[in-house]
Amino acid sequence: MKSILKTMTITALLAAQAAGASAQADGFQYTDERFADLQMLRYKVEGFDALSLRQKTFIYYLQEAALLGRDILFDQNGKYNLRIRKTLETIYTDFQGDRRSADFAALEVYLKRVWFSSGIHHHYGSEKFVPGFSEAFFRTQVKTLPAFKQLVADFGYRNADAFLEEICPVIFNPEVMPKRVNLAAGADLVLTSAGNYYDGVTQAEAEAFYKAQKKADDPRPVMYGMNSRLVKKDGRVQEVKWTTSGLYGEALAPIVAYLNRARQFAEDKDQQAVIDRLVEFYQTGDLHTFDAYTILWAENTAPLVDFVNGFTESYGDPLGMKASWESIVNFKDLEATKRTETLSANAQWFEDHSPVDARFKKDEVKGISAKVITAAILGGDLYPSTAIGINLPNSDWVRREHGSKSVTIGNLTDAYNKAAKGTGFSAEFALGKEELDLMEAYADLTDDLHTDLHECLGHGSGRLLPGVDSDSLKAYGSTIEEARADLFGLYYLADPKLQELGLVPDAQAYKAQYYSYMMNGLMTQLVRIQPGNDIEEAHMRNRALIARWAFENGKADNVVELVKRDGKTYVRINDYEKLRGLFGRLLAEVQRVKSEGDYAGARKLVEDYGVKVDPVLHQEILDRYAHLNLAPYKGFINPVYTAERDREGNIVGVTLSYTEGYAEQMLRYSRDYATLPYVNR
Ligand code: ZN
Questions:
Q1: How far is the CA of 22 from the centre of ligand 1 (A)?
Q2: What is the CA 449 to chain-centroid distance, rounded?
């Protein structure tokens, strides 16, 4: 499961972009170009140089394996995507006319969006892109550029006209393949989704096919259907598996070759066994082997370097079964992981000193040691748009019996934070210099710490009273649970214990998080809500609940105010210590609600404080945000790894550079990592 917003105050995500100028800190260029609704960023692979040659070599081979799967995702996202990508790239590189013309400029933007989304549908909303260039322009290019003579034959068409007849409606007709993933109730979700996971099969046929496979009362079910396309062939519904000798074999075979090269440089025997099982799975497609692989992977926690490579998340399938291909190679950030280990080691102290009723506390509490990692490469469904936290594997029974790995990707969070500097976002919404200085000095650190407290201690603290059903809060359960973890973090951020543990530099630091949390919960998170809508997402509800509850309940003491200046609303915190007291009170109440399974209490808290939006304030925030002209979506350009070899071909050094441009990178990937045929059946 990916967490994109789960663990991070969204200020940096909302702000991350540089208008005009590019954010540069510590001599590193964190932002790159912007187009459509997208801002490209770069991440720094801090600590790579300090790794051993063995580890660098391991990473080098793994990142090759990560890039080799790129075509798989393009094909999974839509059956015409590889042909469209190649066509657009050919026009982009071979075009003879005026490159400043409106049609060419629009084609360039469209191609950049196709690269970003690995297909012709938006990566987030999944709606089909509307091209800004004319169909006539597109047709002329295909008919006149010499390269297309051979290409249309490679695509499998007898001539350019036959190709255009099939491809033009896919690109230009808004009624053809309008959504990649259609979740609208009432429709046949399979037939109306443009993703390439099913062919000629209805939703009912797909559901019946898998229902017949599932065994009743199987305590350890495999992830049915995750590694295949479901097709109707010879009148029969059947799976075509993605294996080295099956569909996508042209990509999976070289991936396996690189995994095997990497294997010799793995950090321990267990990690070699992980690779062996993954290779076996790619070769056989056997789902029991997949489970065995994920168990070995989840339990292999000693190595510094780790990776995900494979069919992983199922957000692209309207039925939630078929898994898109993705990869990330990473290594542990030892310095940042020390932070989470310090917190986990002191978990009992935090439990004992929390402001909740003694009846609701755990006698013995174990911190979860989530690790902080540094991403070295992003591939497939994690590139260029990515998650900042990952929790895998996804199989319920594997998680239950063997645990899971929960990671925060530190250098991506850091890049978002650095890129947010100088965008004018904080200057627009923060009250004044005092608040800006506070956030400038401490917000990056306290944001990370708040996340750590939330993940490592917050969720694991407290207990239910005997006999209370863990599902008793029903639809309000996840908001209450997130509020509990957030409040635990907020309360302890201001505790002298954190200074004693060496986690914060002084007694002021927490104020940065308090200010940005209240500003976000009372105002700025509303930029993600459409006018007239309620707050629905659990994390957003929890932030509104906490901020508004503290605001309302601190009114008598004037703890937090909303003040107006030049017609704009700002948050003013008059008493930070009293605000901490309010967070403590609410934590005690939220824990009581959870421990007692008090459904009515949960509903009241959430409905009174977490759902409704003040329409006047909302419109004001939307207008102010619009003026900043920030791109709502971000993605990352990868660094480039280069291996130095001796005469025998052994790697003797690996260097990395950050200068490759976005289009340059995409064109290189399309040249060097184009593994699949244009048509995959
Ligand atoms: Zn959480």
A1: 32
A2: 20
Residue 384 lies in a domain: yes
107 and 64 in one domain?
A: no
Q: Are strands 560-565 and 405-409 parallel, antiparallel or unpaired?
A: unpaired
Q: Kindly give the distance from the C-alpha atom of residue 116 to the centroid of ligand 1, in angstroms, as a whole number.
A: 29
Q: How confident is the model at residue 385 (pLDDT cuts 50, 70, 90)?
A: very high
Expressed as residue numbers, the domain containing 121 is 70-176+638-672
Total domains present in the chain:
2
Say whether both 427 and 279 belong to one domain. Answer: yes
**Is the preceding omega at residue 384 within 30 degrees of 0, hence cis?**
yes
Confidence label for 632 from pLDDT (cuts 50, 70 and 90): confident
136 and 81 in a common domain = yes
In terms of domains, do 555 and 667 share one?
Answer: no
Instruction: Look at residue 557 and tell me if it is in a domain.
Output: yes
Alpha carbon distance 171, 166 (integer Å): 10
Q: How far apart are CA 342 and CA 499, in angstroms?
A: 12
Q: Name residues whose C-beta falls within 8 Å of residue 332's C-beta, 6 or more positions apart in sequence.
A: 304, 306, 371, 372, 373, 374
| One domain for residues 569 and 646 | no
Q: pTM to 2 decimals?
A: 0.85
User: What are the distances in angstroms from CA 511 to CA 89, 488, 572, 583?
Assistant: 50, 15, 12, 13
pLDDT tens profile 126-150: 999 999 999 999 999 999 999 999 9
481 CA to centre of ligand 1 in angstroms: 7
Closest listed residue to residue 375, CA positions, set 340, 411, 406: 411
Query: Ligand 1 centroid vs 360 CA: distance in angstroms?
Result: 19
Map residue 233 onto helix, strand or coil.
Answer: strand
SS3 letters across 351-386: HHHCCCCHHHCCCCCCCCCCEEEEEEEEEECCCCCC
- How far, in Å, from the CA of 407 to the mean position of ligand 1? 13
